[in-house]
Amino acid sequence: MVRTDSHQLRAAAGTARRRRASRCCRTHKTLIWERTRAVQRLRHQLREYYPAALEAYDDLDAPDTLELLGKAPDPARAAKLTRAQVSAALKRARRRNITDKATAILAALRSPQLGQPAAVTAAYAATVRSLIAVITVLNEQVKILQRQVEENFGRHPDAGDLPVPARHGRHPRRPVLAEFGDDPHRYADGKARRNYAATSRSPARPARRRSSPPVHPQRPASSTRSTPRHSRP
């Protein structure tokens, strides 16, 4: 394939000049993606048997949400949560307006909702507990890698030369390093880089002409007209 179709292949990426910084950035980004997938699975499970939890908790990967869902993964146990338990979880998560938020959470959890049979609810609750454990571990590892990225990214020689994408938080250049690497000769031009990131503009499609509805031809008028019959005298 290399001998016959070499013109269709792209050269392999060069070795990163600071492998430690780029590897930390890529792994940190991958863990964030994995956490997002786990949160989406958790949201889907709760929607099937426990929709009140989606109304009570805004951020499903927050520490207070994971703690309360771990204590009460089904509607029956959630209805037994006390104000002291909810307030304590919010306080440990350093939330503000604890009294108002605890009232809103309890009101949403105790609101009437359509439920599932007991066996189905127990199966969903076990699945939710497993997802909560996965998200909790991912939260811890994301924080650990974030400290490593903040420590190593400033030492990278291209830390100040990379473009700054909008809305990427405190260190906006880290996603660029994680996505594209730091080899300056990997892409021939900006178009090749956009193609790799799937951000290139699609080719303009020709405008479709609006066709008028088909006009049915009228029937030609008959040459002979029917004459009224006269009654015989």
Structural summary, described in words:
The chain is an all-alpha fold and 233 residues long. It is built from 9 helices and no strands.
Largest sheet: none
| Strand element count | 0
Distance between the termini: 103 Å
Oligomer: single chain
Provide the gyration radius in Å.
Answer: 32 Å
Q: Provide the succession of SSEs.
A: HHHHHHHHH
| Low-pLDDT regions | 163-173
Number of helices: 9
Q: What number is the mean pLDDT?
A: 76
**What class would the helix/strand composition place it in?**
mainly alpha
Instruction: Based on Cα principal axes, name the global outline.
Output: elongated
Helicity range of the residues? 40-55%
Approximate strand percentage: under 5%
How are the SSEs ordered, and which strands pair?
Blueprint lengths: L18 H31 L1 H6 L6 H9 L3 H4 L4 H10 L5 H12 L8 H36 L20 H7 L9 H8 L36
Short summary:
The protein has 233 residues and is an all-alpha fold. It has helices spanning 19-49, 51-56, 63-71, 75-78, 83-92, 98-109, 118-153, 174-180, 190-197. The protein has a domain at 19-156 and 168-180.
Give short descriptive properties of this protein:
233 residues; mainly alpha; 9 helices
